[in-house]
Amino acid sequence: MAAVLFLLPFYLLVRNGLATRAEITAPNWTFFPSKIHWENFGQLFDDETVPFARSLVNSTVVATLQTLGQLLLCSLAGYGLARIPYRHAKKVLYGVIATLMIPTSVTFVPTFVVVSTLGWISDLRGLIVPGLFSAFTTFLFRQYFLDFPRELEEAGRMDGLSRWGVFWRIVAPNSKGFFAALAVINFIGSWNAFLWPLIIAQDPSTWTVQVALSGLLTSQNPKINLLFLAAAVSILPIVLVFVALQRYLVKGVAESGLRG
């Protein structure tokens, strides 16, 4: 029963996406429309007002680069906070944690000013660069590396490796499961982002898929059936990523040090 309730929204997306607007709003509900309107796919991708195909490409580029950037930068920062002792380590950690208490919407204005000054409005750089670092991802990496076996690192140091070499040749290769888990979480979060792309991607050529979805729902001509179809298409990439890496998700959370 729970599985049926979980799959119900996906059924509605597919059913309404392959129907006409009249069939969606008809008083008599049918399990599937009498005729499957495959031509809706053509209408969706041929719509000049909403470049949906381009938005899929943009979202893929943005989500992929942000995920890779966070894995690189946040893993290095987390490892430094967990393993490298220096005078102000705790102050830096408290500063990172403090930023988690600030709502994202509060930082939109100063971030927008910086991005605008750099000339990155309606530019993929304006969408990608502000999301290359995450305090939460850094904190998760730090918690994970605190429990990483020190014996392996010490063995690497005895073999002549520097801290940099220990991280790249010992720590990172033995943490693939945790990296994959955070990759899934960050990719989904970046793919589903709406407010920041809505502000920055003012030109349709830089729209992400979430902004394109909002463009299909206008007060003048709501394209309800295309909106359902576009929503179904837009979730396929994150479903595939989740299915491919789902086994790492539970493992990564269990190893993050947050289990209670």
Distance between the termini: 30 Å
Q: What is the N-to-C succession of helices and strands? A: HHHHHHHHHHHHHH
The global form is elongated
**What does the average pLDDT come to?**
87
Largest sheet: none
Count the strands? 0
Supply the helix-strand structural class. Answer: mainly alpha
Radius of gyration: 22 Å
Strand coverage percent: under 5%
The helix tally amounts to 14
Which percent range fits the helix content?
55-70%
Flag low-confidence runs.
none
Question: What descriptors fit this protein?
Answer:
0% strand, 260 residues
Describe this structure in words.
By secondary structure, the protein is an all-alpha fold. Helix content is 68%, strand content 0%. The protein contains 14 helices and no strands. The longest helix is centred in the N-terminal third of the chain and has 32 residues, at 52-83.
Q: Mind sketching the topology for me?
A:
Blueprint: H1 2-17, H2 21-24, H3 39-46, H4 52-83, H5 89-99, H6 108-117, H7 124-128, H8 135-146, H9 150-158, H10 163-171, H11 176-192, H12 195-200, H13 209-215, H14 224-254
Summarize the structure.
With 260 residues, the protein is mostly helical.
